[in-house]
Amino acid sequence: MNWCEHGMNRRISVKKYISCLLTLLLLGALSAQAWADAPTGSVQKGYLPAWSTALAERGSGEGGTAPQEADLRPVRIGLRYGDTGDRRADLSIKRGTGFSLGSFDENNTFQPLCSFEETELFVQADASWHLLIGEGGLSPLEAMAGAAEVGGFVGHFADGFHVLWGSFPTREEAEAALTGYALDGVCYAAPEGAELVCGRGILWYTEREETLGILAEGDSTPITAFGGDRYSGGFAFPIVNGSMQVVNVVALEEYVKGVLPYEMSASWPLEALKAQAVCARSYVVFRRDEYGDYGFDVTADTRSQMYRGLTAASERCNEAVDATRGELLRYQGELCETYYFSSDGGATENCRHVFGYDRPYLCGKLDPFEQAVDVSNNSWEIYRSSTELQSWLAGKGYEIGPVTEVEASYSDFGNVIALQCADAEGVSVTLDGRISYTGLGLDSCRFTVSGDGRGYRFTGRGWGHNCGMSQWGAYAMAQKYGYSYEDILGFYFTGATIG
Q1: Between 27 and 195, whose confidence is greater?
Q2: I need a surface site. Which of 153, 295, 313, 394 has the fewest CB within 10 A?
Q3: Are β-strands 428-432 and 416-423 bridged in parallel, bridged antiparallel, or unpaired?
Q4: For residue 202, which of 125, 298, 117, 110 has the smallest C-alpha distance?
Q5: How many Å apart are CA 481 and CA 42, to the nearest integer?
Q6: What is the rounded CA–CA span in Å between residue 108 and residue 74?
Q7: Contact 26, 368 (CB under 8 A)
Q8: How distant, in Å, are the alpha carbons of 299, 381, 406 from that of 449?
Q9: 469 pairs with which residues across the strands?
Q10: 174 and 112 in one domain?
Q11: What residue numbers bound the domain in which 22 lies?
C-alpha cells in the first residue's frame, strides 16, 4: 500500500495543511535545546506525516523483490552456547512416537540415519575411553544386535557402525577392563567433537564429520521439551572448544511464531503484530550464520531476538505470522536490517549515530504517535554521583577520576549522540553512539543532563536504542489511528519495500 493512497478523501487539502503545520511545530518543539516538549497536537486517524516516505508496492516488480528459496530455509537457534553450553542435554517428546538420529545438511534439512522408539533421551559430549569390540563396518541392525549381546552400545564412524563397550576416564582403566573381562577389542579414545546419545537401554555414539542431529517423529507435528520449554523442529549439538552447543533447527515461520510473543504482547493490535512479524523474520534472514563459529544463525536471547519455541504460543501471534508468511523488508532489493525497540520518546535516530554505520532506511525522524497512548516506562530519571560516574566509566575500560563535568551533544532530532565526561584534572572521556547512554546505565539516548559537579541527574524518555521501529509507536499507529502494518513499516523504515 502506498502512503499517498492511504486515507485519501475529500479533505485532502485540509490534511496537507495540517501536515505542514504539524511538521513545523514538531521541528521546533523537538529541537536539541527543547527536546522535552513533545508534540501535543493529536494526529488524526488516516493522517500521513509530511516527512514520511512511501512504502513501495510489494512483489517482484520495480521496488520489490520476491523472496529467494535460500532466504526461507530453516533457522538454527542457539539455545545453549558458549559459556552456557552444556555437557549434557535432556530431551523428551511431548507429542510424537520416537526420535530419529542423523544430521542437518547445508540447507538445514534433516538427513536421517536411523530411528528409535524412545520418548526420552539425553545427549552428552564424550571425552572418554571406550573399547571397540569385534569387527567394524557393520549395518545398524548388526551393530545393535552385537551391542545387546555384550551389553555395549553402538558407535557410528566414517566407515560404518561398530560395537563399543564401557566408558573410562583414562587409558589405563580401559586397558585394565579389556584384560580383566577378556574382551576381544582395542582401547579407543573419543576425540573432541564426539557425542553420546542415551535412551532407555540404548546408547549411541557418533564420530561423524557432520554435527549430530536429532528429530522427533510422529504422525502430527511432533513437540520436544528441552530446558523447561517446548519446541518444534529438531536439534543439533555442535561441539565448540570442548563445550556442547544446543541448537534448535526449525522452519522459518515456526521460528517467527516463537519470537513474536516475547517481543510484543499478543494482546496488541493485529496490524502491530504483523509489523513485528515482518521485522522479526527480516532480522533473522539478514543475520543468518552470524554465530557460524558456534554452529547456528542467531541466539535465543536478547543478543539476537527472544525465542522460546512453542512455550508461549498464541493464536493471535500465529495469525499475524501466517498473514505475512514469507514477507521480508527490503531496500532497493537488498534485505533490510530491521532493528526495533520499545519506545523512542518522541523521535527515532539515524543508524550512524546509534550503531556507527549508515543504513538509508534507518534514518531518524520525529515520531508523533507514541504520545497518543500510555507508554509504560516512557519517562525516567536516574541520578549518578561523581564517583558513581567514575565507576561506570571504569567498568567500560576508561581511566578517569570522579566526574566533575558532563556535556551532551544532540542530533537534529533531540537524541543524545555523544556524551563528554571530564574530571577535575582535565581528563575527559567522550562516549559516542549507543555507549553514550548504555555506558552509564541509562534507558535510552533521549535525555537531558543537569548537575553541580558532585552529581548529575539524567532525565529522559523512551526505552531502547531509538533506531528502526518503535514497538509502542506501532501499537499507537494501529490502535489509535487505524494504520496497517504496511503503513507502520513504511513510516519507521524509510523507502523500504515488502517482498
Answers
A1: 195
A2: 394
A3: antiparallel
A4: 117
A5: 10
A6: 6
A7: yes
A8: 35, 10, 7
A9: 340
A10: yes
A11: 3-66+330-374+466-498
Same domain, 368 and 427: no
- Minimum mean pLDDT among 159-168, 222-231, 258-267: which range? 159-168
Number of structural domains in the chain: 3
d(CA 186, CA 180): 13
Least confident of 34-48, 380-394, 445-459: 34-48
pLDDT (0 to 100) of residue 66: 57
In a shared domain, residues 124 and 213: yes
Query: pLDDT grade, residue 28 (50/70/90)?
Result: very low
Quick one: 341 and 432 in the same domain? no
Same domain, 22 and 157: no
Q: What is the dihedral of CA 185, 189, 193, 196, to 10 degrees?
A: 50
Please identify which residue in the block is written with the cell numbers 486517524: 45
Is residue 259, in this structure, part of any structural domain at all? Answer: no
Which cell is 91 given? 530431551
In the predicted model, is pLDDT for residue 158 greater than 90?
no
Q: Mind listing the pLDDT tens digit for each residue in 102-122? A: 999 988 999 998 888 889 999
Mean pLDDT (the chain) is 85
* Residue 109 belongs to a domain: yes
The identity of residue 332, as a single letter, is Q
Residues contacting residue 302 through CB under 8 Å, at least 6 positions apart? none
Q: Do 86 and 102 sit in the same domain of this protein?
A: yes
- Name the DSSP class of 70: G
Boundary-marking domain end, from 219, 250, 281: 250
Contact between residue 341 and residue 475 where contact means Cβ atoms under 8 Å apart: no
Specify whether the CB–CB gap between 163 and 133 falls below 8 A.
yes
268 belongs to a structural domain: no
Instruction: Assess whether 24 and 149 both reside in one domain.
Output: no
Question: How far is residue 4's CA from residue 345's CA, in Å, rounded to a whole number?
Answer: 26
| Claim to verify: residue 186 and residue 216 sit in the same structural domain | yes
Percent of the chain as helix, strand, coil, to the nearest 5: 25, 30, 40
Q: Which residue has the cell 576416564?
A: 169
